[in-house]
Design goal:
The protein has 11 helices and 8 strands. It is α/β, with parallel strands linked by helices. It has a single domain, classed as 3-Layer(aba) Sandwich (Rossmann fold). Strands 1, 2, 3, 4, 5, 6, 7 and 8 form an 8-stranded mixed beta sheet that branches. Helix 3 runs parallel beside helix 4. The chain is globular and about 45 Å long. It starts with 17 loop residues before the first helix and ends with a strand. The protein binds S-adenosylmethionine. S-adenosylmethionine binds next to helix 1 and helix 3.
């Protein structure tokens, strides 16, 4: 299903959705009262969550910039979220206008707004796939219509893996990530971030409980659990680190002064 089929997928406004809750934290307008209510309840137990969302979004910008500066010209972004400028293709195409970007998300509201992701540079391409990350066959096949998997691709799952919970739905999350990495050519990048319980376990446990009770499994991961996603890959400096510390811009340094947010980030290269 592509961005043109948006009207065919109903948006459920009776329960909160992660993309819309995150949109509320980012100050967006594409959320409903149920999303705002959960966003506020989580903010009440974890006061870092708005700073965390912003820091995470800025990490995506820096990681994509690093990939583009390293010569990557193809991007597959899974768990894209509601468009928030600059979007990934804008960051990549600012550096290399010929960059090709494929977005994938399973939320109908992201599909509704996907047209905004499809206006890229004249030289490059952008595409959108409405699909679940748990369906790598479908995402890789659809992405293969515009990306050449014989050449390096930057695969990003930014703030997505904490919604994948082995205990709740029996997923083998490491095996799933492995399916994607296996499809990538040497020289490809893997860009990841996700929430951790390491820094403030009590607050994160309560936030995870609120997500889970709303119908969204939530699995924070420790440093060791998160780092395992990069097994077999070469981590770029500075390695796996709290998100604002990953190759920070001056605004990230300033944000860190307000306190570290409980989100890990890392970027690795496939040898
Ligand atoms: C917190 S947002 C992150 C958005 C963006 N990557 C960023 O970091 O700014 C998580 C996104 O993952 C999407 N998502 C959650 N579970 C998913 C799944 N199983 N398959 C595809 N997308 C999923 C949500 O719809 C949401 O848009």
């Amino acid at each position: 299903m592509t961005a043109n089929d948006a009207a065919a997928v109903p948006v459920d406004t009776s329960r909160p959705h992660p993309a819309r809750v995150y949109d509320w934290w980012l100050g967006g307008k594409d959320n409903y009262p149920v999303d705002e209510e959960l966003a506020r309840r989580i903010l009440a137990v974890d006061g870092t969550v708005v700073r965390g969302a912003r820091a995470n979004r800025r990490f995506m910008h820096r990681a994509v910039r690093a990939a583009a500066e390293a010569g990557i010209r193809q991007f597959l972004d899974i768990g894209t979220g509601i468009p928030t400028e600059p979007n990934l293709h804008q960051v990549a195409q600012r550096i290399a206008p010929e960059s090709k970007v494929v977005y994938a998300d399973n939320d109908p509201i992201v599909l509704r707004h996907a047209q905004a992701l499809l206006h890229g540079s004249a030289e490059g391409t952008t595409d959108y796939v409405h699909a679940d990350v748990r369906d790598p066959g479908r995402i890789l096949e659809s992405a293969g219509r515009s990306l050449d998997f014989a050449r390096p691709v930057a695969l990003s799952l930014v703030a997505l893996t904490h919604y994948l919970d082995e205990a709740a739905d029996g997923d083998d999350v490491y095996g799933l990530l492995g399916r994607y990495v296996d499809a990538l050519a040497p020289g490809s990048f893997l860009i990841l971030s996700q929430v951790t319980p390491d820094l403030n376990p009590a607050a994160i446990e309560r936030a995870a409980g609120l997500f889970a009770r709303s119908g969204t499994p939530f699995h924070p991961r420790t440093l060791a659990e998160f780092s395992r996603f990069f097994d077999g890959l070469e981590l770029l400096g500075p390695g796996v680190i709290p998100v604002s510390g990953w190759r920070p811009d001056p605004e990230d340094v300033a944000a860190q002064a307000e306190g570290i947010v409980p989100v890990y980030a890392g970027v690795a290269r496939k040898p």
